[in-house]
Amino acid sequence: MSLAITAFFALGTGIELYGLKFVSDSISVLNTVSLVMLTFLIGIIVSQSYGKEVFEKMQRHLKSREAPGDEALNGAVMGVAGMLLITPGAVTDIIGLLIMIPITRGIFKQIASNLSKKRIESGQPYFFFKD
Protein backbone atom coordinates (compact mmCIF):
# COMPACT_ATOMS: atom_id res chain seq x y z
CA MET A 1 0.00 0.00 0.00
CA SER A 2 2.72 2.50 0.90
CA LEU A 3 4.55 1.69 -2.34
CA ALA A 4 1.43 2.57 -4.32
CA ILE A 5 1.04 5.85 -2.44
CA THR A 6 4.71 6.69 -2.93
CA ALA A 7 4.45 5.92 -6.65
CA PHE A 8 1.30 8.05 -6.92
CA PHE A 9 2.98 11.09 -5.33
CA ALA A 10 6.17 10.60 -7.35
CA LEU A 11 4.17 10.42 -10.58
CA GLY A 12 2.07 13.44 -9.56
CA THR A 13 5.18 15.46 -8.76
CA GLY A 14 6.73 14.51 -12.10
CA ILE A 15 3.59 15.56 -13.97
CA GLU A 16 3.47 18.88 -12.10
CA LEU A 17 7.14 19.60 -12.82
CA TYR A 18 6.67 18.76 -16.49
CA GLY A 19 3.62 21.02 -16.61
CA LEU A 20 5.54 23.90 -15.03
CA LYS A 21 8.42 23.38 -17.47
CA PHE A 22 6.00 23.42 -20.40
CA VAL A 23 4.37 26.63 -19.16
CA SER A 24 7.71 28.30 -18.47
CA ASP A 25 8.95 27.40 -21.97
CA SER A 26 5.82 29.02 -23.40
CA ILE A 27 5.56 32.22 -21.35
CA SER A 28 8.99 32.58 -19.61
CA VAL A 29 10.14 31.63 -16.14
CA LEU A 30 9.29 34.99 -14.56
CA ASN A 31 5.73 34.94 -15.91
CA THR A 32 5.32 31.34 -14.74
CA VAL A 33 6.42 32.23 -11.21
CA SER A 34 4.07 35.23 -11.28
CA LEU A 35 1.21 33.01 -12.45
CA VAL A 36 1.87 30.48 -9.68
CA MET A 37 1.89 33.28 -7.09
CA LEU A 38 -1.35 34.73 -8.50
CA THR A 39 -3.12 31.37 -8.29
CA PHE A 40 -1.74 30.97 -4.75
CA LEU A 41 -3.35 34.27 -3.74
CA ILE A 42 -6.63 33.34 -5.43
CA GLY A 43 -6.52 30.00 -3.60
CA ILE A 44 -6.06 31.72 -0.25
CA ILE A 45 -9.05 33.99 -0.90
CA VAL A 46 -11.24 31.08 -2.00
CA SER A 47 -10.15 28.93 0.94
CA GLN A 48 -10.99 31.67 3.42
CA SER A 49 -14.41 32.13 1.83
CA TYR A 50 -15.26 28.42 1.71
CA GLY A 51 -13.36 27.07 4.63
CA LYS A 52 -13.69 24.89 7.64
CA GLU A 53 -17.38 25.56 8.32
CA VAL A 54 -18.39 24.01 4.98
CA PHE A 55 -16.46 20.82 5.70
CA GLU A 56 -18.01 20.69 9.18
CA LYS A 57 -21.44 21.05 7.58
CA MET A 58 -20.58 18.16 5.26
CA GLN A 59 -19.50 16.06 8.27
CA ARG A 60 -22.84 16.78 10.01
CA HIS A 61 -24.76 15.66 6.93
CA LEU A 62 -22.84 12.40 6.78
CA LYS A 63 -23.15 11.72 10.52
CA SER A 64 -26.91 12.18 10.25
CA ARG A 65 -26.86 9.78 7.27
CA GLU A 66 -28.42 12.24 4.84
CA ALA A 67 -27.13 13.42 1.49
CA PRO A 68 -25.56 16.88 1.64
CA GLY A 69 -27.48 19.74 0.09
CA ASP A 70 -26.41 21.77 -2.91
CA GLU A 71 -25.02 24.54 -0.70
CA ALA A 72 -22.79 22.12 1.21
CA LEU A 73 -21.58 20.45 -2.00
CA ASN A 74 -20.86 23.79 -3.62
CA GLY A 75 -18.87 24.95 -0.60
CA ALA A 76 -16.98 21.66 -0.39
CA VAL A 77 -15.87 21.67 -4.01
CA MET A 78 -14.94 25.35 -3.78
CA GLY A 79 -12.85 24.54 -0.69
CA VAL A 80 -11.09 21.82 -2.67
CA ALA A 81 -10.55 24.33 -5.50
CA GLY A 82 -8.88 26.70 -3.04
CA MET A 83 -6.58 23.93 -1.80
CA LEU A 84 -5.67 22.98 -5.37
CA LEU A 85 -4.91 26.60 -6.25
CA ILE A 86 -2.68 26.98 -3.20
CA THR A 87 -0.67 23.93 -4.28
CA PRO A 88 2.00 25.07 -6.76
CA GLY A 89 1.75 23.38 -10.12
CA ALA A 90 0.15 23.68 -13.52
CA VAL A 91 -2.17 20.66 -13.35
CA THR A 92 -3.56 21.43 -9.89
CA ASP A 93 -4.12 25.05 -10.91
CA ILE A 94 -6.03 24.01 -14.04
CA ILE A 95 -8.25 21.63 -12.04
CA GLY A 96 -8.80 24.31 -9.37
CA LEU A 97 -9.76 26.89 -11.99
CA LEU A 98 -12.12 24.40 -13.66
CA ILE A 99 -13.87 23.90 -10.33
CA MET A 100 -14.27 27.66 -9.95
CA ILE A 101 -16.04 28.04 -13.31
CA PRO A 102 -19.79 27.65 -12.66
CA ILE A 103 -20.40 25.69 -15.88
CA THR A 104 -17.90 22.94 -15.00
CA ARG A 105 -18.44 23.06 -11.22
CA GLY A 106 -21.52 20.85 -11.59
CA ILE A 107 -19.33 17.94 -12.70
CA PHE A 108 -17.24 18.19 -9.55
CA LYS A 109 -20.33 18.62 -7.36
CA GLN A 110 -21.73 15.42 -8.88
CA ILE A 111 -18.48 13.60 -8.08
CA ALA A 112 -18.62 14.86 -4.48
CA SER A 113 -22.29 13.87 -4.23
CA ASN A 114 -21.59 10.36 -5.49
CA LEU A 115 -18.66 10.02 -3.10
CA SER A 116 -20.72 11.15 -0.12
CA LYS A 117 -23.60 8.82 -1.05
CA LYS A 118 -21.16 5.89 -1.21
CA ARG A 119 -19.83 6.86 2.23
CA ILE A 120 -23.38 7.00 3.64
CA GLU A 121 -24.30 3.62 2.10
CA SER A 122 -21.16 1.97 3.48
CA GLY A 123 -21.79 3.44 6.94
CA GLN A 124 -18.71 5.67 7.07
CA PRO A 125 -19.79 8.77 9.01
CA TYR A 126 -16.77 10.85 7.99
CA PHE A 127 -15.97 12.43 4.64
CA PHE A 128 -12.28 13.15 5.09
CA PHE A 129 -11.12 13.01 8.69
CA LYS A 130 -12.43 11.84 12.01
CA ASP A 131 -13.13 14.47 14.68
Number of strands: 0
The major beta sheet can be summarized as: none
Number of helices: 6
* Shape category: globular
Instruction: Specify Rg, calculated over alpha carbons.
Output: 17 Å
- Measured between the Cα atoms of the first and last residue, the distance is 24 Å
Q: How many independent structural domains?
A: 1
Strand content: under 5%
Written overview of the protein:
The chain is an all-alpha fold. The protein has one domain. It contains 6 helices and no strands. The protein is globular. The mean pLDDT is 82.
Keywords:
single chain; 6 helices; about 130 residues; mainly alpha
Outline:
By secondary structure, the protein is mainly alpha-helical. Helices cover 82% and strands 0% of the residues.
Layout of secondary structure:
Elements lengths: L1 H26 L1 H21 L2 H12 L6 H17 L3 H11 L1 H21 L9
Helix pairs in contact: 1-2, 2-4, 3-4, 4-5, 4-6
